[in-house]
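Dear colleague,

As promised, here are the two records you asked about, laid out in our usual form so they can be pasted straight into your sheet.

NAME FIELD: protein one
SEQUENCE, THEN STRUCTURE:
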Amino acid sequence: MIDRSIGGAIDSALDRMLHSIDPVIAGVLNRAIDGKDVEVEEACELFECSREDEVDAMVMVADMLRRTRVGDHVTYVVNRNINFTNVCIKRCGFCAFSRDFREDEGYLLPVEEIVRRAEEAYRLGATEVCIQAGLMPRMDGMLYIDICRAIKRAIPDMHIHAFSPEEIKYGALRAGMSVEEYLKALKDAGLGSIPGTAAEILVQEVRDTISPGRIKVRDWVSIVKMAHRLGIPSTSTIMYGHVESSMHKAMHLALIRDIQRETHGFTEFVPLSFVYREAPMYRYGLVKGVRAGPSRDEVLKMHSIARIMLNNHIPNIQVSWVKEGLDMCRVLLNAGANDMGGTLINESISTAAGAMNGQMLRPREIRALIRGIGRVPVQRDTLYRRLRVFDGKEEHHQDPLDTVEDTSIFGSYHELIRLDRFKYKRSHPYS
């Protein structure tokens, strides 16, 4: 049970607010304050509420739960994204990143270039590389395993956070292995954790609308549970703001919570706003009724309700600065979130869809944002082990990445798709 005296005047104000709003909403929020799990129908009520005072109360409860669970530390990781190919056999309605193998903008980074980028990131202080990509036609199923081996051979200390459940399913198929055998081979090759992407909304009817042919809910759940059982942790995500309903979002959160109760393998939950500008299902009207991403209130409620529903099970709620921008991140860190994600260095997937918040944040920029809202920055590793607490005594600390003024040296997605030397060719040994 949470001590309502924590926070003093703030919680007195919350008590007054809870007595003034709809009794149904107040009842749900009081259950969360009392440490009880909020159920699907109750979460749906929270998603549906629209009065400003009700949303304010929800945000205050989420922030109280965050403060009690993880305190005033806000974490971040120094990492690099390596999206090594945009060639993909799938045609998801929300994805503006993928290209058909016949298109001129298809690219493929060879393994040595992936390793070079990982080594460059390591020299700049990165502790993690995040590797995800398209599903190439006729891909050699050993590619993912070879990537892990090559990175670990070059940089034994680098954590490899790679390959969504969709990629793992495809890799196993191409390698002629069971998913369990494939996950074991990846782990043996150096895989440290997997991203819980390819989740979108874990309700099959929604997936059939926005991404027919995408991995089924049952397969996503099965692969994630198997990874957890094998000692491979993962993140968890939701991609929202398109065609889903409040009930769909509540069901998704409940499923994530159910998995965590069973496996305890999720390190964090990351709400991901649908970036609509270049998404085919929005731009070309391929899906009826698709929204232009979530509203500000939807984003606020998504993060708050994620904290309220998952607080007893997943301590870390991450904000996506790429999706939301820095101003909104400041708001969300006071609405239940406690993690700023990573430096990224290269961001391709959201950028391709029209996100305009940049491809990289320096550690000093992340720390300044966190200090600006009165919280304490903490550099972590992928598994949320604390590497350095910035408690105000290290004001002049500089990470190697902080010294890089010209970020154009890392290239960008828009440059990458024009480079002749990385053009996708069917003759590549892994394609």
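NAME FIELD: protein two
SEQUENCE, THEN STRUCTURE:
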Amino acid sequence: MAKDLDVVLLADFYGEMLTENQRKFIEYYYSDDLSLSEIAQNEGITRQGVRDAVKRAESQLYDMEKKLGFAERTRKIKEALEIIKESTDSINNYNMNISLSREVNDAVVSIRSAIDSLDE
């Protein structure tokens, strides 16, 4: 079983919808980088029991993302914000070197402020 970083991201979005054990096992396996055997030994259950819980949790996380799409939507928003940041830099550079418009400068400052508030 390859460790998939997408599962960590999906757990951030949907982890509260998993059972306590599923959440715990996903955290141990992905965040703490414990093996299935180590988790099983620590929890006093079989390796197969841990594997089943992890697989079930992964399946539920992917299913929730397929239905709700919050992680993908967040990724697209971050990409769009990066494009907006780059565009405001270009507009600001053009304004500073060519037109020196106070209105353009104020608009760039306003856009950057809005972007920064979303990045927090």
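A couple of things worth noting about protein two: The chain is about 85% helix and 0% strand. The chain has two domains: 5-68, 73-119.

Best,
R.
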